[in-house]
Amino acid sequence: MGFFGFLQRPDLGQGLERFAATPNALLLDVRTQEEYADGHIPESRNLPLQTLGRTELLPPARETPLFVYCLSGVRSRQAAGLLRRMGYTDVTDLGGICNYRGKVVK
């Protein structure tokens, strides 16, 4: 990663393809419950960023593949870092859905 590599945004489309191809993976939407209700990616599970510290809401197996997204990518980056610090070993930050044009569930 170059000096400004942190400015690169994850490719949501590629990330969702990886999610679909990964057995036992979880897709986590870390936006608020209201944002989630307004429209979310199918198969996603809402775990707002502020609730991630509650381990009973997360899978007990730390090797569970987790794919995380939010609106713009800021909260997903924070969530991915938190999940890694909590011991999860397979965490992918998908970034934000602000430009997502795929199917959403309301």
Automatic annotation (TrEMBL):
InterPro entries: Rhodanese-like_dom, Rhodanese-like_dom_sf. GO terms for molecular function: thiosulfate-cyanide sulfurtransferase activity. Pfam families: Rhodanese. Residues 21-105 form the Rhodanese domain. It comes from the Bacteria. This is Rhodanese-like domain-containing protein.
